[in-house]
Amino acid sequence: MERTESMPAQTRPPGMATADPGSVLLPGHDVPLGRYTTVRRLLPQRQRRMIGAWCFVDHFGPDDVAHRPGMEVPPHPHTGLQTVTWLLDGEILHRDSLGNIQPIRPGQLNVMTSGHGIAHSERSPERHPPVMHGVQLWVALPDPARSGPAAFAHHADLPRWRDGDADVTLLVGELAGQRSPAVVHTPLLGAQVELRGVAPTTLPSRPDFEYGLLALSGAARVDDVPLAPGALLWLGAGRETLTLGGTAGTRLLLLGGTPFEEPLVMWWNFVGRSHEEIVAAREDWTTGRRFGVVADDPAPPLPAPALPGTRLKARDRSGGVHG
């Protein structure tokens, strides 16, 4: 998925609330994606840039695409990250420069590891379901994975279980004695929790993890903060359990991980450590080096935007500038 804009201005987003020193409500902002899709960008923001190694969160839909093309994102590059794609409704066809052509449907997981460089496209098939709803996330890769080879994995079978009045699907990492088959490179967690009743649900958590909770649908309440669909609640670290409440049918995405301490330079579709790395990646994409050709996609690749007139600065997970 292409990142189409720079960071928002340093302002307090409308509706942002602080429940306590360890949680911040981030409502996100709308960003156009491709020609036909608008997403709610929830990370990065000035107030909170990361949750563990999760450095980018887009929530899209639910959108009526019955008489529309749906998602249309032509070939574009990535470096230094993993993309994690999860659908609640609809279908997207992934194509990449490793030769993979893979449809993804609700309940399945796509994980693409860019390593030193990969290109891909994401499109709704010509005949697609009438509703599209899902998330795409980026995971910052540490050394040496960020300089390693690219890879792609599709997981049709994920750990699923009932916990009290909630159904849990484990996308990434470990939870409640279950482990996802998805390969990641830092301690990380991603799980969908669907509430089946009004009784609160308590999940185990790790005190060394920081957590965030995204409301995908329905009404939820965490830390006495109401959580509306499309909003992300950053929960901080130091917790041994997480208690979630809401109406039956509410679906939540739980994200977590150990704090990622390496400062990052994030620009367009690249995650690096320095201005020079980003310049080199842009030059390689523009000149046709490094990233390869996306399989079975005749559309012209997206051109890289112009670099800003000043040096790109590395920022840490809380937004501090380095270098």
From TrEMBL:
Bias type Basic and acidic residues, positions: 313-323
Domain Pirin C-terminal: 193-289
Obligatory cofactor(s): Fe cation
Superkingdom as given in the UniProt entry: Bacteria
Keywords linked to the UniProt accession: Iron, Metal-binding
Stretches assigned to the Pirin N-terminal domain: 38-139
Transmembrane segments: none
Annotated residues for binding of Fe cation: 76, 78, 120, 122
Cofactor note: Binds 1 Fe cation per subunit.
GO molecular function, one term: metal ion binding
Annotated segments matching region Disordered: 1-30, 296-323
Record family assignment: Belongs to the pirin family.
Record protein name field: Pirin
Source organism: Micromonospora nigra
